[in-house]
User: Which sequence fits this backbone?
């Protein structure tokens, strides 16, 4: 998948093979089998081009990473503790990325969580009991 994501376009088995062979010896049939398995699992779609296929990622690398994180988090018996432990593993740069992502998800019309806590009250016009109106976030 890394090679397919890297090019961000439909690729052939031959292209992936040639790229991989710059690092190690690998057989054409191995690459073909892996891409076929990824197709069967729904990770890539393929389109016939002559006697070969062109493979293209179904989702972005970011979406794949998000799905992995969501799956791991949803399997926890204590999601809050899992998040605290995960955040504790982050570098300062990763925590800043997290803050940026939260701001994006909240949108421009939503107050930052810190502002709500510091004031002790919801900003004017906000009903503290109306969280369901915002999708529970």
Assistant:
């Amino acid at each position: 998948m890394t090679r397919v994501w890297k090019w961000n376009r439909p690729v052939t088995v031959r292209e992936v093979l040639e790229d991989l062979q710059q690092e190690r010896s690998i057989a054409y049939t191995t690459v073909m089998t892996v891409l076929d398995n990824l197709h069967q699992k729904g990770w890539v779609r393929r389109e016939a081009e002559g006697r070969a296929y062109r493979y293209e990622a179904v989702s972005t690398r970011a979406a794949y990473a998000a799905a992995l994180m969501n799956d791991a988090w949803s399997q926890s018996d204590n999601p809050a503790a899992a998040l605290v432990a995960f955040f504790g593993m982050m570098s300062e740069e990763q925590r800043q990325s997290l803050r940026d992502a939260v701001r994006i998800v909240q949108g421009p019309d939503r107050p930052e969580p810190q502002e709500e806590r510091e004031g002790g009250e919801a900003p004017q016009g906000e009903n503290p009991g109306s969280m369901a109106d915002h999708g529970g976030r």
